[in-house]
């Protein structure tokens, strides 16, 4: 029996509805592919990069377990190993953008990678969402439109360093700030240079004496000349911005040569990998201070937004389960926190308010973010400086803390209003480095 025209029209209409429903269903369940770049091998891996990558993956897993972004868009992480080499990092990001066709790059541990990657991704008009690298130079006077960082920046290390010393010089050392002698040593990449420049500028502004400022290659096989210069300068306090192998080399040679000081301040990176430092130096590193974004577990959940404490607990449990570690480093919190903000505060807005997950929609959504202090697992809020400002794309609400190592226990000792312990300053006489 021949098919009538009406039947054909009905069939075609039904097919069109099915097709439309299928298209809508696919759109509603769109998978969001995100490039995740860290140093999984090489010297940066043990300096905090692997810990950051695990924190990032935990955030992705938690969101996917709840159905994905907005409860319906699963995240597919496309991972890359930068191998602790800037050229590899650039090549891998180019591959992710050009071959894997991702619009979002998340991660980046090393500032030496972040500086060229920011320019490269900006050129492509894709999103670079930096979780860990801190150099102020990534953003300063660049007017970046597609690069964002909720993480702190290196100038803030100098502010915290000088602020702590100015506050405690008289009461703890019995010295006026102008009499406190400072030595600043640093690896000579963007991270170390940025931290050292901030330390110097803010120390001088506070009236502290800078008696030595010296850079070195993070790959240097010998730092004995640097140790000799420190012994001649006789600083009261040393600030050290370094990664993992160079910190180990410096502390070993400092101990062997009998270098003495009243306090050593690390600037995150290798100084935040306490399990590794303790394995090598045991009690030698007790009471050293470290400036970095706070590990989430050190904050009082009662002072944070509802639910943040529970989120921190889940992150800690999963990190320990994945690694077998008992000490969860700050870099896990960094990788998790920044990725969580992207997945929960930016991408849903990009889709719901601006209609897609393309870079332009994400850029607009990022500039809408307004998380008050206490609204993230690291305590600080998030609000990005807008285009046309000197630090466009940087979080204006990020804050570091000064932490102190007391054996297996880490305490927040500055800012004073949120400290969990009064600082031990100077080093006690029991320290091998004590004056």
Strands ordered across the widest β-sheet: 7-6-8-9-10-11-12
Structural class: alpha/beta
Arithmetic mean pLDDT: 92
Radius of gyration: 24 Å
What is the total tally of β strands?
Answer: 12
**Beta-strand percent range:** 5-15%
The share of residues in helices is 40-55%
Helices and strands, in order, run as: HEHEHEHEEHEHEHEHEHEHHHEE
Taking the sheet with the most strands, its summary is: 7 strands, mixed
Which residue ranges are poorly predicted, with pLDDT under 50 across at least 5 consecutive positions?
15-20, 22-27
Number of helices: 12
Q: What overall form do the CA principal axes indicate?
A: globular
Can you describe this structure in just a few lines?
The chain is an alpha/beta fold. It has twelve helices and twelve strands.
Describe the structure.
It is built from 12 helices and 12 strands. By secondary structure, it is α/β, with parallel strands linked by helices. Strand 1 (32-38), helix 2 and strand 2 form a beta-alpha-beta unit. Helix 2 crosses helix 10 and helix 11 (330-354) crosses helix 12. The longest helix is centred in the C-terminal third of the chain and has 25 residues, at 330-354.
């Amino acid at each position: 029996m021949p098919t009538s025209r009406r039947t054909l029209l009905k069939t075609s209409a039904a097919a069109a509805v099915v097709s439309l429903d299928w298209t809508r269903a696919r759109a509603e369940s769109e998978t969001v592919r995100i490039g995740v770049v860290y140093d999984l091998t090489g010297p940066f891996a043990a300096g905090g990069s692997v810990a950051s990558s695990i924190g990032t993956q935990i955030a992705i897993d938690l969101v996917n377990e709840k159905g994905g972004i907005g409860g319906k868009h699963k995240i597919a992480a496309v991972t890359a190993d930068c191998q602790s080499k800037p050229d590899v990092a650039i090549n891998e990001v180019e591959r992710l953008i050009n071959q894997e066709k991702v619009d979002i790059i998340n991660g980046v541990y090393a500032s030496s990678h972040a500086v060229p990657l920011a320019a490269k991704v900006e050129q492509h008009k894709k999103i670079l969402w930096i979780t860990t690298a801190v150099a102020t130079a990534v953003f300063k006077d660049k007017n970046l439109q597609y690069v964002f960082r909720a993480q702190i920046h290196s100038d803030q290390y100098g502010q915290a360093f000088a602020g702590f010393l100015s506050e405690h010089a008289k009461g703890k050392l019995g010295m006026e700030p102008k009499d406190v002698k400072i030595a600043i040593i640093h690896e000579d990449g963007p991270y170390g240079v940025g931290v050292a420049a901030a330390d110097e500028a803010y120390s001088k502004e506070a009236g502290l004496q800078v008696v030595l400022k010296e850079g070195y290659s993070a790959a240097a096989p010998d730092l004995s000349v640097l140790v000799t210069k420190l012994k001649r300068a006789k600083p009261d306090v040393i600030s050290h911005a370094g990664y993992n192998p160079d910190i180990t080399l410096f502390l070993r040679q400092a101990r062997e040569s009998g270098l003495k000081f009243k306090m050593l301040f690390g600037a995150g990176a290798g100084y935040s990998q306490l399990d590794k430092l303790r394995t090598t130096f045991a009690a030698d590193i007790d009471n050293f201070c470290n400036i970095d974004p706070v590990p989430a577990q050190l904050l009082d959940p009662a002072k944070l937004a509802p639910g943040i404490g529970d989120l921190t607990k889940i992150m800690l449990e999963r990190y320990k389960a994945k690694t077998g570690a008992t000490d969860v480093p700050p870099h896990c919190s960094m990788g998790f926190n920044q990725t969580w903000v992207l997945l929960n505060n930016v991408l849903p807005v990009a889709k719901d308010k601006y209609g897609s997950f393309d870079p332009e929609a994400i850029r607009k959504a990022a500039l809408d973010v307004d998380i008050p202090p206490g609204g993230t697992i690291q305590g600080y809020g998030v609000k990005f400086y807008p285009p046309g400002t000197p630090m466009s794309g940087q979080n204006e609400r990020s804050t570091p803390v000064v932490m102190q190592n007391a054996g297996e226990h880490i305490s927040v000792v500055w800012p004073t209003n949120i400290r969990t312990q009064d600082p031990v300053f100077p080093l006690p006489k029991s320290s091998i480095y004590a004056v």
